[in-house]
Design a protein that fits this description.
The protein is mainly alpha-helical. It has a single domain (22-118), classed as Dioxygenase LigAB, LigA subunit (Protocatechuate 4,5-dioxygenase, Chain A, Orthogonal Bundle). It is built from ten helices and no strands. It is flat and about 50 Å long. The model has no long low-confidence stretch (mean pLDDT 89).
Length: 134
């Protein structure tokens, strides 16, 4: 029996704290990710730093995507189709290390997050299923 693709992909939404980068998210975040990748060029970084809102307005981002970028709300950017590897251009432009930016996506401080990662990462206990509670 053939499994419904929407049912299959919906199962990925059941992992606490995880956003699986699906084709739907890629389509949703196309312009957000293109904007982020534009920051690879020094001239674009300079324009961005001079006036973030004006630079964002040159891209076909939704208002929600623009606000998430301005707020540096990386979880929201991920929800709106951002890819963490593209979004890293934003926090790199801000001078923030990758691990520190990731810590902002948790309920931990950067030192707490760093120590958790040094200790082997987040425990799978309680982080396997939203519906199942485990």
């Amino acid at each position: 029996m053939k499994q419904d693709i929407h049912e299959y992909l919906a199962a990925f939404e059941d992992i606490p704290g995880t956003r699986v980068y699906t084709a739907a998210r890629a389509r949703q975040g196309y312009w957000l990710n293109q904007f982020a990748m534009s920051l690879m060029k020094a001239a674009n970084r300079d324009r961005w730093k001079a006036d973030e809102r004006a630079y964002l307005d040159q891209w076909q981002l939704t208002d929600a995507q623009k606000q998430a970028v301005l707020d540096r709300d990386y979880n929201r950017m991920l929800d709106l189709g951002g890819n963490i590897y593209f979004l890293s251009k934003i926090f790199s432009t801000d001078g923030i290390p990758f691990a520190e930016a990731c810590s902002t996506m948790t309920d931990m401080t950067f030192p707490e997050y760093r120590q958790m990662m040094l200790d082997g990462g987040r425990s799978p206990e309680g982080n396997r299923s939203i519906k199942g509670g485990y």
